[in-house]
Write a structure and sequence with these properties.
By secondary structure, this protein is an all-alpha fold. The chain is built from eleven helices and three strands, in the order βαααβαααβααααα.
């Protein structure tokens, strides 16, 4: 490619799903439904926690933040995709793509870090129950959430600034329904060594680190639960972790599945389909996972919806 043909594009093209016109209404309806369920479900979780004083605890404080992040996470990708389907277009502007990529990185990282903080909360609650209120005091909870925001905002900014230094060829097509950082980087015409280096380093540090923290926390939790003498006590202790474990398994399971899919077929539409699992399905299911088996949450939701005194 001649240097004269390199340019900062006016727009990218997102080719994540079928171009068949007959399938577009079905795809639009499906994603609109999932987006509305995601927003409504997570918003209900937030309102239920805010309205019920009994839920003003560290665990539910972190859960309300997770629900807020899930709303923002899906809102970075789905609305633009729905607009493109309605407009019968695959285009996204250069600035829009970089902006979408930034917020996607930030909110995906926030999901990861908040799940780690919630695992730590469960670790303290089960392994150090007598000191729980002292350790997980309101100041520490706010500091932990603030730290998560600062790290992920800086992480997203780092990748965005590095991508801004790249040059792209004309007629650039991304086999995704959103501007995923890896796809954008590997579509550039200029050298991407530094971008790849930072991307892999960040993946190890900011994805592997939280996962290691979650695994360590639950290794200690499992050891503590096994030491409980009664079956009822073991069940009660485990039940406080069941919802979080389900969400963690869903989040990391789908993320790993996307990475494996991308490695097997990096330019295939199957990667976009796999991405739907952790960008849309996981945030949509989180409110159901946390409410269906949680008596306190079901009570708060019922009181919110039926306006009981």
């Amino acid at each position: 490619m001649e240097p004269g043909n390199k340019t900062h594009l006016a727009e990218f093209s997102l080719w994540g799903f079928s171009e068949d016109p007959e399938l577009q209404p079905l795809i639009f309806g499906l994603f609109l439904f999932m987006y509305l369920v995601t927003v409504a479900g997570n918003l209900l979780i937030i309102l239920a926690i805010l309205s019920d004083p009994q839920l003003h605890t560290p665990m539910y404080f972190f859960l309300s933040n997770l629900s807020l992040v899930d709303i923002c996470f899906t809102s970075t990708t789905i609305p633009k995709m729905l607009v493109n389907i309605q407009m019968q277009s695959q285009a996204i502007s250069y600035v829009g793509c970089i902006t979408q990529m930034y917020f996607f990185i930030a909110f995906a990282g926030l999901d990861d870090f908040l799940l780690t903080v919630m695992a730590y909360d469960r670790f303290v609650a089960i392994c150090h129950p007598l000191h729980y209120t002292v350790i997980m005091n309101p100041r520490l909870c706010v500091q932990l959430v603030l730290m998560c925001w600062i790290i992920t905002v800086l992480h997203g900014l780092l990748h965005s600034l590095l991508v801004l230094q790249l040059s792209f060829c004309a007629n650039l097509e991304i086999p995704q329904f959103f501007c995923e950082v890896n796809q954008v980087i590997h579509s550039a015409c200029s050298d991407t060594f530094l971008n790849d280096l930072v991307l892999y380093f960040a993946a190890v540090l900011l994805a592997g680190g939280p996962l290691a923290g979650i695994l360590y926390s639950y290794s200690k939790v499992i050891s503590s639960i096994r030491a409980i003498s009664t079956a009822q006590g073991k069940y009660k202790a485990f039940s406080t972790c069941a919802s979080h474990l389900s969400v963690v398994s869903l989040f990391y399971g789908t993320s790993i599945g996307v990475n494996l899919s991308a490695g097997a077929a990096p330019s295939s539409a199957s990667t976009a389909t796999a991405s739907v699992m952790y960008t849309v399905v996981t945030p949509m299911l989180n409110p159901f996972i946390y409410s269906l088996r949680n008596t306190d949450m079901k009570r708060a939701l019922k009181r919110l919806l039926v306006r009981e005194p």
